[in-house]
Amino acid sequence: IRLKGDVRFHNVTFGYEENKTVLNDVSLYAKPGQKIAFVGSTGAGKTTITNLINRFYDVPDGKITYDGININKIKKADLRRSLAFVLQDTHLFTGTVKENIRYGNLYASDEDVVNAAKLANAHSFIMHLPKGYDTHLSSDGANLSQGQRQLLSIARAAVANPPVLVLDEATSSIDTRTESLIEKGMDSLMHGRTVFVIAHRLSTVRNSDAIMVLENGSVIERGNHEELIAQKGKYYSLYTG
Ligand code: DCP
Ligand code: MG
User: Could you tell me where this protein is found in the cell (predicted)?
Assistant: First the structure.
């Protein structure tokens, strides 16, 4: 099956250990193509929500659905095909650039790989590597900059072409030029997909359809940027100006 990217949480309460609640009665509703941003201080539960979207853990209380289907009833392979992650720490393996972009997508042609890299804004730096797409990478990606690793991670997600994307934005400082390449690549990647983003950049947050402000595992505010600014609550104090 090909999921459309309608993702909902219905009153999800979750903890990693018994008697220790990490998410408390979280509900959310993302229509296909919508972008939802999670903000909140460290330990608030942002990564935990993305862990549940990916079904790294089962939900004992409440439920999560994709296109109305309970996540527990979706085959792992179908779920995997429906999701891509772009994380702060991109896992690269020993192999060529091409292999690293293709990753699990064994049927992707060389042309698909190049098109994904172009969409991700990674093509031009790749062409400057000694052997282009056939350049060998070390497993820790030590021969690439952090920004370049992120561009590869975007290309990898683009090859997968999933309806749902989960992004964990980097907080680290990347030079402005690479940063703007990453932003443009991300924008192209996000187009037409349901996106959950753990947002650190104000520009990302502003452009989201809905922002969820988390505190100690609870959603304390939700709305778009203008609505939350008007509320003059936690969000307002985080993002005034
Ligand atoms: N937690 C846990 N066991 C884990 C992961 C997290 O007990 N394997 C706890 C630590 C926090 C709470 O769950 O008290 C929420 O953790 P998150 O990683 O979801 O928090 P954030 O992603 O919001 O924090 P950060 O901004 O630091 O990434
Ligand atoms: Mg986190």
Answer: Cell membrane
